[in-house]
């Protein structure tokens, strides 16, 4: 017999105390409302354990009683992985597991609990004279456990890799309450299967991450940042390859931004002035980290070289912190401005970098055939082959009617992505949004392997039920 919501609340209260169990619907809203505003199911309760032992006790109880547990960090996920699907699940918030356990600049490691907010981990690193180079627009809310569980990317993947690349070890509670103590910081460890990499990116379906040992790096002396005008995406690709060959690993960001997205931000009053060197259909926001004193000028010299070879049209360099902040705001506000401009249809996709110009030109042509007047706003991490291929509704269109026509648009984009050898989820994951899509596009043998792993580690299906694999 499944437990009623009242029984669930009473029994959870017995485990972690009444102060840390939320059962009233009105107090649950901040845990249930997710950024995409697409999923609206209630939950039986919210549990806020304050220690790893309490997480273990909750999972032992849930496993014995068949209660679905949804791990939740900052609730910034964009595919509905952190919110309920059925309505009888318990959301387990990691908010109280928020200690930095250790930081060792000499060893280049930081061990943080899963509920540490990413921005707080940045501050702790900076206070120790180092950086944790995982930068996302959601870093003020996203928590370490959520960032690892979605294998988040962000704007620095080019130089430092994604969350998986930055994780040395994890500690996690398994479905039956056992603790996997994998917090090692070894560069070399060939003792069998890579369990850390199984838990990172599992979106809470295989275990609840309670802490992680992360890589930290020396703080750059400074950054050189520029906004560059580019006539077309072939030139953007050529410029990326040119800069990469010169700045190598110091090239830490190469983001593309369409003019349309900047015009939207200026119209909506989100930028105090235009951060670009002048009108152009495309821009690249480029950043190079200066690692040692007196080594500036790398980006300027490379851009001058590219200019003299006719690869780029114009460039403006950040001359102050406020210039740099404005340039980055122009990039980071791209998603937000679209919600101010009405409804938008979004795709987080990746293709081999050389295919980005084709992805964008074929994608825009296919979608404009479907919806004349649609406003394409593709932007993002060109240096990683990852584009947020978004479309805003035509000016004056009815948002509901526009969203009702989303499926053919998704199909058109995903067909092109798959034809070009790409992925239908580059950095946001599967959650509940892309469960059907995953079934359609993933290699059947890979799906079988994933199902076997899920069944072996969570035989009663209590961990984030229905997400990723659909059970
Ligand atoms: C404005 C904005 C900008 C963003 N920019 C980026 C970006 O540049 N790059 C990028 O990759 N993503 C980005 N995202 C998506 C999102 O911020 C990331 O996916 C982030 O990593 C999620 O962290 P979170 O703590 O909010 O996780 P949540 O949303 O709480 O959870 C996400 C998933 O992880 C699981 N989970 C959470 N904690 C744990 C845990 N301790 N153990 C096991 N499973 C857990 C949840 O069940 C869920 O499936 C952005 C989102 C927003 C709103």
TrEMBL record:
<comment type="similarity">
    <text>Belongs to the FAD-binding oxidoreductase/transferase type 4 family.</text>
</comment>
<dbReference type="InterPro" id="IPR016164">
    <property type="entry name" value="FAD-linked_Oxase-like_C"/>
</dbReference>
<dbReference type="InterPro" id="IPR051264">
    <property type="entry name" value="FAD-oxidored/transferase_4"/>
</dbReference>
<dbReference type="GO" id="GO:0071949">
    <property type="term" value="F:FAD binding"/>
</dbReference>
<dbReference type="InterPro" id="IPR036318">
    <property type="entry name" value="FAD-bd_PCMH-like_sf"/>
</dbReference>
<protein>
    <submittedName>
        <fullName>2-hydroxyacid dehydrogenase</fullName>
    </submittedName>
</protein>
<feature type="domain" description="FAD-binding PCMH-type">
    <location>
        <begin position="39"/>
        <end position="219"/>
    </location>
</feature>
<keyword id="KW-0285">Flavoprotein</keyword>
<dbReference type="Pfam" id="PF02913">
    <property type="entry name" value="FAD-oxidase_C"/>
</dbReference>
<dbReference type="Pfam" id="PF01565">
    <property type="entry name" value="FAD_binding_4"/>
</dbReference>
<keyword id="KW-0274">FAD</keyword>
<dbReference type="InterPro" id="IPR016166">
    <property type="entry name" value="FAD-bd_PCMH"/>
</dbReference>
<dbReference type="InterPro" id="IPR016171">
    <property type="entry name" value="Vanillyl_alc_oxidase_C-sub2"/>
</dbReference>
<dbReference type="InterPro" id="IPR006094">
    <property type="entry name" value="Oxid_FAD_bind_N"/>
</dbReference>
<dbReference type="InterPro" id="IPR004113">
    <property type="entry name" value="FAD-bd_oxidored_4_C"/>
</dbReference>
<dbReference type="GO" id="GO:0003824">
    <property type="term" value="F:catalytic activity"/>
</dbReference>
<dbReference type="InterPro" id="IPR016167">
    <property type="entry name" value="FAD-bd_PCMH_sub1"/>
</dbReference>
<dbReference type="InterPro" id="IPR016169">
    <property type="entry name" value="FAD-bd_PCMH_sub2"/>
</dbReference>
<dbReference type="GO" id="GO:0022904">
    <property type="term" value="P:respiratory electron transport chain"/>
</dbReference>
């Amino acid at each position: 017999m499944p437990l009623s919501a009242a029984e669930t609340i009473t029994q959870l209260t017995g485990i972690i105390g009444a102060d840390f169990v939320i059962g009233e619907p009105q107090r649950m809203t901040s845990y249930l409302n997710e950024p995409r505003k697409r999923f609206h199911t209630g939950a039986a309760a919210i549990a806020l354990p304050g220690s790893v032992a309490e997480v273990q006790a909750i999972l032992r109880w849930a496993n014995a009683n068949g209660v679905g547990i949804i791990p939740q960090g900052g609730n910034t996920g964009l595919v509905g992985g952190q919110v309920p699907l059925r309505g009888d699940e318990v959301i387990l918030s990691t908010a109280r597991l928020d200690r930095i356990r250790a930081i060792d600049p000499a060893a280049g490691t930081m061990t943080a609990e899963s509920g540490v907010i990413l921005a707080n981990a940045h501050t702790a690193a900076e206070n120790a004279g180092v950086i944790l180079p995982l930068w996302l627009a959601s870093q003020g809310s996203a928590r370490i456990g959520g960032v690892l569980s979605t294998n988040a990317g962000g704007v620095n993947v080019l130089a430092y890799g994604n969350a998986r690349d930055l994780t040395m070890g994890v500690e996690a509670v398994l479905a039956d309450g056992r603790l996997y103590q994998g917090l090692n910081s070894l560069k070399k460890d060939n003792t069998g299967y890579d369990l850390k990499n199984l838990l990172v990116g599992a979106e809470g379906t295989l275990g609840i991450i309670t802490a992680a040992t992360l890589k930290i790096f020396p703080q750059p002396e400074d950054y050189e940042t520029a906004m560059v005008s580019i006539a077309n995406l072939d030139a953007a690709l050529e410029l990326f390859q040119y800069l990469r060959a010169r700045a190598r690993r110091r090239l830490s960001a190469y983001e593309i931004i369409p003019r349309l997205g900047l015009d939207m931000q200026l119209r909506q009053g989100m930028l105090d002035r235009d951060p670009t060197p002048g009108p152009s259909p495309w821009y690249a926001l480029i950043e190079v980290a200066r690692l040692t004193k007196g080594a500036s000028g790398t980006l300027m010299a490379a851009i001058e070289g590219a200019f003299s070879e006719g690869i780029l049209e114009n460039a403006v360099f950040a001359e102050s912190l406020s210039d740099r902040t404005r340039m980055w705001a122009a990039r980071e506000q791209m998603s937000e401005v679209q919600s101010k401009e009405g409804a938008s249809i979004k795709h987080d996709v990746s293709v081999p970098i050389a295919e980005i110009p084709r992805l964008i030109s074929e994608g825009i042509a296919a979608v404009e055939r479907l919806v004349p007047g649609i406003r394409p706003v593709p932007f993002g991490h060109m240096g990683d082959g990852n584009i947020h291929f978004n479309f805003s509704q035509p000016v004056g269109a009815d948002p509901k009617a526009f969203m009702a026509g989303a499926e053919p648009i998704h199909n058109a984009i995903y067909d092109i992505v798959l034809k070009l050898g790409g992925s239908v989820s580059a950095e946001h994951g599967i959650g509940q949004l892309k469960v059907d899509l995953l079934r359609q596009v993933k290699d059947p043998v890979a799906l079988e392997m994933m199902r076997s792993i899920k069944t072996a580690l969570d035989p009663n299906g209590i961990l984030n039920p229905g997400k990723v694999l659909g059970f």
